[in-house]
Amino acid sequence: MAGTDKRKADAAKNLPKGPAMVLVVPQLGDNIGAAARAMLNFALTDLRLVAPRDGWPNPRAWKAASGADSLLDNAKVVTTTEEAVGDLDFVLATTARPRDMVKPVYTPEEAVRRMRAHLKAGGNPGFLFGPERTGLTNDDLALADAVVTVPLNPAFSSLNLAQAVLLMAYEWNRAGDETPDEELPMADTRPATKSELLGLFTHLEEELDDTGFLRPEEKRPAMIRNIRNLFQRAAMTEQEVRTFRGIISALTKHAYRRAREELGVKKSGD
Q1: Cis peptide bond upstream of 104, omega within 30
Q2: Is the peptide bond before 216 cis (omega within 30 degrees of 0)?
Q3: How many domains in the chain?
Q4: What is the 3-state secondary structure (H, E, C) of the chain?
Q5: Are 201 and 142 members of one domain?
Q6: Domain that holds residue 256
Q7: Degrees (nearest 5) of the Cα angle 211, 212, 213?
Q8: CA distance 153 to 122
Q9: What's the CA gap between 134 and 137, in Å, rounded?
Q10: From CA 139, how far away is CA 222, in angstroms rounded?
Q11: Cα(126)–Cα(91) distance, rounded to whole angstroms?
Q12: What is the tens place of the pLDDT at every residue in 217-270?
């Protein structure tokens, strides 16, 4: 989904601190670039690369980053995992395979909850991601405080490197996001008041009475309630009420005009 606002580039320079994302022996430059793009989508900027297989810099990474060049330009490139995590004090390793290690295993939600608490306390946390083909080695896992495992289809639990980074970056952002579950942008209008809605109802009902729609008389109260409930469910704005009343007026004037024209034709034919 395209949605980059280049006018906010300056704000991006002051993004809040987040966890380091450590890619251990990443194989493809395309995946490194896609991972950087995913990180910047969720305001993460600390990218670390451990011995990229095809060397560094890799032009394909910049091409796949789709504008997240700053992360690639400032990526920390080292030769060992130990170097990459040396300044970190809380490391979570991502893996889909069970290992013969006594180590806590977290869901993504629990992982980011603990990591946010650690960061808030002044810590310096990070995630470890393994190579696309083999994943992290046991020696890499031994450097982690715990393991993060995503609940996937057990018969097919393979994630692309960039997908894994995106998933953890999304969970990280979601845990601290305060966006309401639902909102309705009003632009230059506002919700209609009950007085405005009653004006619409009266206007419409008068015209419906005039056309004979609200008949027979004994059914009129129920028909009016149904019509009013219909508009109430629409949660109309003030602008929509005015627009709809304009529609009613236009249709009414058109009907009167046609009636006069038809009457004129009949008189001329007499």
Answers
A1: no
A2: yes
A3: 2
A4: CCCCCHHHHHHHCCCCCCCEEEEECCCCHHHHHHHHHHHHHCCCCCEEEECCCCCCCCHHHHHHHCCCHHHHHCCEEECCHHHHHCCCCEEEEECCCCCCCCCCEECHHHHHHHHHHHHHCCCCEEEEECCCCCCCCHHHHCCCCEEECCCCCCCCCCCCHHHHHHHHHHHHHHHHCCCCCCCCCCCCCCECCHHHHHHHHHHHHHHHHHHCCCCCHHHHHHHHHHHHHHHHHCCCEHHHHHHHHHHHHHHHHHHHHHHHHHHHHHHHHC
A5: no
A6: 194-269
A7: 95
A8: 36
A9: 8
A10: 75
A11: 5
A12: 999 999 999 999 999 999 999 999 999 999 999 999 988 888 788 777 665 555
Distance separating the N- and C-terminal Cα atoms of the chain: 67
Residue 129 and residue 85 share a domain:
yes
| Final residue belonging to a domain, choices 145, 176, 207 | 176
Entry field: residues in the chain: 270
Max CA separation in the chain (angstroms): 104
Which residues lie below 8 Å from residue 88, measured CB to CB, with a gap of 6+? 20, 124, 125, 126
Q: Reply yes or no on whether the pLDDT at 16 is more than 80.
A: no
> Across the chain, what does the average pLDDT equal?
89
Helix axes 194-211, 220-233, angle to 10 degrees: 140
What confidence tens digit (pLDDT) does each residue in 115-160 have?
999 999 999 999 999 998 888 999 999 999 999 998 888 888 778 8
